[in-house]
Write a structure and sequence with these properties.
The protein is of the alpha/beta class. It is 34% helix and 16% strand. This is Acetolactate synthase.
Length: 390
């Protein structure tokens, strides 16, 4: 049997239980994309809008179910815009196989250490089966993490006269992860639910606490909340149970802006039967909101909860102005008035159902509509600007 390098990659992914590949094709990887879409070796390919989002998506997927995805980069890792995303996955022990072709330009320096657990360049098709098997062994043994393979374009298109049984491509390592399907305490057992009961009146400016409490009251017990960077993480830890790590996902050692949106998409792919809500600040959301298009194209029903306070206001806590002045992190117009995009309107233009909430009385019915939506949806909540108020 003759197999191309691309087909060998696809067979290895199937043998190791990879259900999805996320990424962007490039000049050096078309043969890989073709193999992924070929009947018999086909694996669903989730094309993202920015390459770093593919790594964040695979990160969220692994955190949700404990199984690795594959990522396809349009350029070699050493010149990829996804380097920060790879470093975040390594810091938080998320396993994934990052695949790329070779570069059409002059070869850059070797990938800096500390970005992935291992980086291997495959220059001959005879090396490919062993390199793939070793990659899965490396990523899943010891402290798990991402591994990258740079496969030359000539290797992808070359043919090898070989019969490869799945067992010859399957890694021997296994990773033991907490079962994310375990239930957590019901709303009546959690302070957030009691907070809702004590806070039934509208207030002039909402804070993050009230929407999160209302959300907790209507979520199913096994729902997953994917939290963005910043002050919102600390508030969510106070208001949501943490006894089951599979119900609360956030970046750990590296608080990465732009992580939550693609990570929530990955979590929903991993656990399609569970509710997945991405709670994120407006500045964080602006880093990766283009990935809403992925949800629409693939019918992935994530609920995005965007807290709009016109800026990276949590960053302003490090600045204490002596006199009245604009604080670092705020989004302002030249005349000093707060600036904010219409996130609900943007989401509708992407093809999502979307709502804008300005009063507490709107929260409960809006969350119910969003959670019952058949496709992706977005709830924009206007919140008080001062992060200390939040």
């Amino acid at each position: 049997m003759k197999l191309t390098g691309g087909q060998i990659v696809a067979k290895a992914l199937k043998a190791n239980g990879v259900d999805y590949v996320a990424g962007m094709p490039g000049d050096g990887s078309w043969a890989l994309v073709e193999a992924l879409l070929t009947a018999g070796t086909d694996i669903p390919f989730i094309q993202v809008m920015q390459e770093q989002s593919s790594v964040h998506l695979a990160d969220g997927y692994f955190r949700a179910c404990g199984r690795p995805m594959a990522v396809l980069l349009p350029v070699p890792p050493a010149i990829s815009k996804a380097l920060g995303a790879m470093a975040a996955a390594l810091a938080d022990s998320s396993a994934m196989l990052i695949i790329s072709g070779d570069s059409a330009v002059q070869r850059p320096a070797t990938l800096a250490p500390g970005i992935t657990k291992e980086h291997v360049q495959v220059s001959a098709i005879e090396q490919l089966p062993r390199a793939l098997r070793q990659a899965f062994d490396t990523m899943l043994s010891g402290r798990v993490g991402p591994v990258s393979l740079e496969i030359a374009q000539a290797v992808q298109t070359a043919s090898l006269d070989v019969s490869l049984a799945p067992a010859t491509l399957r890694a021997s390592s296994e990773v033991q992860r907490p079962d994310p399907r375990l239930k957590t305490a019901g709303p009546d057992e959690h302070p957030a639910a009691r907070w809702v009961e004590d806070s039934t009146i509208d207030v002039p400016a909402l804070t993050v606490h009230k929407p999160l409490a209302e959300l907790r009251a209507v979520l199913e017990s096994d729902a997953m909340l994917v939290i963005g960077a910043g002050r919102i993480q600390a508030i969510a830890r106070e208001m949501f149970p943490l006894d089951n790590p599979g119900n609360h996902l956030c970046t750990g050692r590296v608080s990465t802006l732009g992580w939550a949106v693609p990570a929530a998409i990955g979590a929903k792919l991993a656990m399609p039967a569970r509710q997945v809500v991405c709670a994120v600040g407006d500045g964080d959301f602006l880093q990766s909101m283009q990935e809403m298009a992925v949800c629409v194209m693939h019918s992935i029903p994530v609920v995005f909860l965007v807290f709009n306070n016109s800026g990276y206001v949590s960053l302003s806590d490090v600045q204490v102005p002596v006199v009245e002045q604009h604080r670092a992190g705020e989004f302002n117009l030249p005349d000093g008035k707060p600036y904010s995009p219409d996130f609900a309107g943007i989401a509708r233009n992407f093809g999502l159902e979307a709502w804008r909430v300005e009063h507490a009385s709107q929260l409960n019915p809006t969350f119910i509509k969003a959670l019952n939506s058949k496709g992706p949806s977005l709830v924009e909540v206007i919140t008080a600007r001062g992060s200390r108020v939040n």
